[in-house]
Design goal:
Elements lengths: L6 E5 L6 E3 L4 E8 L2 E5 L2 E5 L3 E5 L5 E5 L4 E7 L13 E3 L2 H16 L4 H19 L7 H13 L6 H8 L3 H12 L3 H19 L4 H7 L5 H12 L3 H8 L1
Antiparallel strand pairs: 1-8, 2-7, 3-6, 3-8, 4-5, 4-7, 6-9
Helix pairs in contact: 1-2, 3-4, 3-6, 6-9
Length: about 240
């Protein structure tokens, strides 16, 4: 799976026990039937109101009973670095079950754009983190760095700018940020810019050149290249769908 590609699919599994791992996070939500899982030496099942969270790189075994259907979300590590803070098996409340049914409908329609699909998946991740995620104690310097990035991603900024705001050296910033946030400051900045650009492409009438400038890129070429690498499609693809 490409580094930034999010997959949202309905899948069925057979009764033969299997074991594997993959380099992306995976969420498995119940639609029908039961999926037995072993993740991080924890046994559980995806059934009725119970879902599974499988972090990237973790061996897991699985087998399903007959007549099963599950909503499966494959999520790049970079897109959801905090997902490991969610327990391996979680109980879905009525609101989450309703959202899962909404996602099922979107998959069935086969008309959802890649960008919209990504946003819907990341919203589910955020909802799970808010309900079940262990809250880490973020170093105040890294909190300052995140605030600086959140507030200035529209501008041309350097790692030194961020390090200065956090009262750290560039080396310290990279090490601490990666350890606490799960991605480098550069990756975090890119994610901010790409999500904002996608939203503007789908919801505004700004030209692609104007959007590039709004999210901190000095040239349309550099923006378009980065956007295509991130989402697998050029900006013009999402603009055409929105129109």
């Amino acid at each position: 799976m490409p580094e930034s590609t999010v997959k949202l699919e309905i899948r069925s599994y057979d009764s033969e026990s299997k074991k594997h791992c993959h380099r992306y996070h995976q969420l498995v939500l119940p639609l029908a039937g039961e999926l037995l899982l072993m993740v991080d030496h924890q046994e559980g099942a995806v059934v009725r109101q119970k879902a599974a969270v499988i972090p990237s790189g973790r061996d897991h075994g699985f087998a399903a009973l007959v007549d099963n259907r599950f909503l499966v979300l494959d999520i790049p590590e970079q897109a959801a670095p905090d997902l490991e803070r969610v327990p391996r098996f979680v109980e879905l409340d009525p609101a989450l079950l309703h959202y899962a049914r909404f996602l099922e409908t979107q998959v069935s329609l086969k008309a959802t754009s890649g960008g919209s699909k990504r946003q819907m998946v990341l919203l589910l991740v955020q909802l799970l983190l808010e309900r079940y995620g262990e809250k880490p104690d973020l170093d105040r310097r890294i909190a300052a760095a995140r605030h600086f990035l959140d507030s200035h991603f529209q501008h041309r900024i350097t790692l030194q700018d961020v390090a200065t705001a956090a009262h750290l050296s560039v080396r310290q910033l990279n090490e601490l940020f990666k350890r606490q946030v799960g991605m480098t400051p550069h990756q975090y900045l890119t994610e901010l810019r790409m999500q904002q650009a996608l939203q503007l492409l789908e919801q505004s009438r700004l030209s692609i050149q104007q959007i590039a400038e709004r999210v901190g890129y000095s040239t349309l070429a550099s923006f378009s290249t980065r956007f295509a690498q991130h989402f697998g499609k050029p900006p013009s693809h999402f603009r055409a769908i929105a129109q």
